[in-house]
Amino acid sequence: MLHIGEHLLISHPDFSLLIQPKAKLVVLLNHGRFFKQYHVQEVKLPAKQPAKITAKVAETMAWKGGKRVGLGTKEYATSTHWIRLGGASAYTLYSVPDSAHPNLDQPPPPTGLGLAAIDVEEISSLVNNKTPVTITN
Question: What is the distance between the alpha carbons of residues 49 and 73, in angstroms, rounded to a whole number?
Fold first, then answer.
């Protein structure tokens, strides 16, 4: 509840992702500036990768018991999250167990980058299918 004299600040984020597989980093940018970085736990990529790939987030996914679940379902809160990137990349940002999620029931995809489950949950809540992604060595 606002009172007279108080200010309400409304954010207009413009997120993008910079992925650096060799450095094991995923950097979240807001309006092209550093916002937050996440550490990659697992790298499962083909040996030959282009020096730079430009893509977009294709979709955010949630899995429970081997089945996809939708946002708003009762299973979503306890599901395993992934972020699939579109374009020429075969990248998926997938969840690996962490202290908050010691047991994940969805096996990882064959290729992609594994981040702590809590990090993938956070990133997936901030990006959408218009979010640009740059992948560099």
Answer: 37
Which bin fits 114, alpha (ψ -120 to 50), beta or left (φ > 0)? beta
Strands 80-85 and 15-20 come out as: unpaired
Q: Confidence class of residue 89 from pLDDT cuts 50, 70 and 90?
A: low
Are the beta carbons of 91 and 19 closer than 8 angstroms?
Answer: yes
Q: Is the pLDDT of residue 134 over 80?
A: yes
Task: Reduce the DSSP state of residue 120 to 3 states and report it.
Answer: helix
Token pair of 36, please?
């937050």
Please report, in angstroms and rounded to a whole number, the separation of the first and last CA atoms in the chain.
Answer: 47
Phi/psi at 74 (5° precision): -65, -25
State the pLDDT at residue 28.
98
Other CB atoms within a 10 A radius of the CB of residue 37 amount to: 14
Residue 130 binned pLDDT confidence (cut-offs 50, 70, 90): very high
Provide the residue ranges of all domains of the chain, joining segments of one domain with +. 40-130
Q: How far apart are CA 76 and CA 67, in angstroms?
A: 11
